[in-house]
Amino acid sequence: MAVLHDMCIRQRGLFICAKVFNCFWVQTSRWTIKQSGWPANTVELWEYKHQKTKHEELRRRIRDVTGSLNNRTSQLQVLKTRCEDFKLHLTDAMADDKTIAAFHELERSRYAKLRQAVEEHKAAVTRAVEQKQTSVVEAVEISPSYVRCSRECELDEKERQLVDQRRKLAKREQAIVIRKNHIAARILRLRKLLQSNEEKRALYKEQLAALRSKASRRY
């Protein structure tokens, strides 16, 4: 923004210097023509050609500024479209966050149910072992160590499955967070670029209005 302001100040300074030099040159030329004793129609013809040249120069500058303004307008439209697209991507990412939160709740409920079932199985196995130990009836009994080992193996397998699911869920969360940060950074850069282009567009509009007013005052 500071660089753009400095450029505007320099352009205005150069424009003022050129205007002062042009006025001085015109007055000097008129005085020279009058002193030389040329006819009045020659002086008028010279002034007409000079004013026509200035008019053509102003028209050329107006065309240049208008073309630049149109280019900036098209760039602004493209940037606005890209901002809307990134907003849609950000909305999708937020929807993914909600889906992950719901998946978390589902996994927590499943894990709680699984823990409850494990505790119930442990209690049932403990009661069965105590009954077998205190029973007087001689029968083929299942070894408590075998039952305990089999249940522990099942529990270990379920815990491994839960750990794998948690690991996959953590990876997915990390990928979504990285994607959100990337999209947010790009949106911030696009907003800054959009603001800069809008400021340039306003400056070009001011320059175009000044040139048009100057041309209308002179002609």
Task: Give your account of this protein's structure.
There is one protein chain. The protein has 219 residues and is mostly helical. It has one domain. 94% of the residues lie in helices and 0% in strands. It contains three helices and no strands. The protein has helices spanning 2-36, 40-134, 144-218. Helix 2 (40-134) packs antiparallel against helix 3 (144-218). It is rod-shaped and about 135 Å long.
Number of strand segments = 0
Count of DSSP-assigned helices? 3
Question: Total domains, how many?
Answer: 1
State Rg.
42 Å
SSE class: mainly alpha
Mean pLDDT, nearest integer? 70
Describe the main β-sheet briefly: none
Distance between the termini: 35 Å
* Approximate strand percentage: under 5%
Low-confidence residue ranges: 1-5, 136-142
List the helices and strands in order: HHH
Coiled coil: 155-214
Keywords: Coiled coil
Provide the fold topology:
Elements: H1 2-36, H2 40-134, H3 144-218
Helix pairs in contact: 2-3
Please outline what is shown here.
The chain is an all-alpha fold and 219 residues long. 94% of the residues lie in helices and 0% in strands.
Name its key features.
219 residues, mainly alpha, 94% helix, coiled coil
